[in-house]
Amino acid sequence: MKFSDAFQQLEKTLLHIPGRMAQLRFLADLKKNGRYEHWGLEKTYGEEKAKEAMACTHSASFNKVLEAPLLELDQEEKEAEAKAEGTGAEQADDLIPPQKKGGSARHLKWILKVLSLSGRSR
After folding, report:
1. In whole angstroms, what is the distance from residue 86 CA to residue 109 CA?
2. In terms of Cα–Cα distance, which of 105, 103, 97, 91 is closest to 53?
3. What is the pLDDT of residue 122?
4. What is the end-to-end Cα distance of the chain in Å, rounded?
5. pLDDT above 80 for 111
6. Residue 37 carries which DSSP code?
7. Rounded average pLDDT over 72-91
8. Where are the domains of the chain?
9. In terms of DSSP bridges, do strands 35-36 and 31-32 run parallel, antiparallel, or are they unpaired?
10. How far apart are the C-alpha atoms of 76 and 78, rounded to whole Å?
11. What DSSP string runs through 54-116?
């Protein structure tokens, strides 16, 4: 099996998770003790390809959040709250992938701060 197969499967999974922040949280949650783990992907595609796909997808998702307009992220968070999915009170460090691929941890922290302040005003 190829890396692209594992990557495509993970991308399909993300289509079922509404909101860029929720997708980033999902991918960050796959990382345990500094290592990505997903039993199904590893069983189907092999540990190396699965971990490579998770790391690549996490980095891409991280950058999508950084590139998104704040108003859109805020709206996605409001919709998640309305559906009782919760938006999470995670630390920015928990969401940052090992390979940021051009993204900035400081930028993500700023986005989370603004979204947090926006949530308090509701």
Report:
1. 19
2. 97
3. 47
4. 48
5. yes
6. -
7. 73
8. 3-120
9. antiparallel
10. 5
11. HHHHHHHHHHHHHHS-HHHHHHHHHHHHHTT-------HHHH--S--TT--HHHHHHHHHHHH
d(CA 110, CA 68): 13
pTM value? Answer: 0.79
User: For the segment 49-78, what is each residue's pLDDT rounded down to a tens digit?
Assistant: 999 999 999 999 999 999 999 999 999 988
Please report, for residues 24, 50, 58, 85, 96, the alpha-carbon distance to residue 63 in angstroms, rounded to integers and kept in the order given.
10, 20, 9, 23, 10
pLDDT: which is higher, 99 or 62: 62
- Dig out the tokens for 36 from the structure: 């990505």
Residues with Cβ < 8 Å from 45, sequence gap 6 or more? 1, 3, 5, 6, 9, 53
**Cβ atoms of 63 and 101 closer than 8 Å:** yes
Q: Locate 106 and state its tokens.
A: 């400081």
Task: Find out whether 93 and 53 touch, Cβ atoms under 8 Å.
Answer: no
